[in-house]
Amino acid sequence: MRKHNKTFHIRFTKSEYEKLCSLSERTGLPKSTYVRFMIKGQVPKDRPSPDYYAMTKQLYRIGTLLNQIAARAHTTNYIDAKQLEEALMMHRQALLDIQEAVLLPEAMDTETVLHHAKELEVLGEQTEPSTEPMV
User: Fold this and answer.
1) Alpha-carbon distance values, 11 to 15, 68, 96 (Å)
2) Pick from 84, 61, 88: which is nearest to 74 by CA?
3) What is the rounded CA–CA span in Å between residue 29 and residue 25?
């Protein structure tokens, strides 16, 4: 069963829609996913540059090599296993830090959510619910 099984139809002005498309495009996410992040109070980060993927690919290669060295070190006792394990942990943490810095959305407070919603021009100048009917 689909996780997102409820639909909601919303109308945008041309400029609002263009803004949503622009923000969605910058992140590489579908518009619906971008809006769901905003509803949860998170702003998705811009799509990482191709350099990011090259860097992480290289880190994965280094990690694989370190794991191979570690396996050999444990069987032959040729390398200080404790020192190598520490290096592996540092490598893993560096990779996680890069991924967190580049990929994960950031939590927002209410003021920031309203600011980004105004950027989308969804709320306009209103911060209170409108009593006017929407067409």
Assistant:
1) 12, 56, 39
2) 84
3) 7
Q: Look at the block and give the residue holding tokens 């811009």.
A: 46
Q: Which DSSP letter does residue 123 get? A: S
Determine contact, residues 72/78, Cβ cutoff 8 Å.
yes
**Cβ–Cβ < 8 Å for 16, 121:** yes
pTM above 0.70, yes or no: no
Dump pLDDT digits (tens) for 47-89: 888 778 888 888 888 888 888 888 888 888 888 777 788 888 8
Q: What residue segments make up the domains of the chain, in order of their start? A: 13-47+106-125, 49-102
Tell me if residue 94 falls in helix, strand or coil: helix
First to last CA, the chain: 33
Q: Give the amino acid at 17.
A: Y
- Helix (H) / strand (E) element for 67: namely helix 50-76
Q: What would the two tokens of residue 101 be?
A: 């810095």
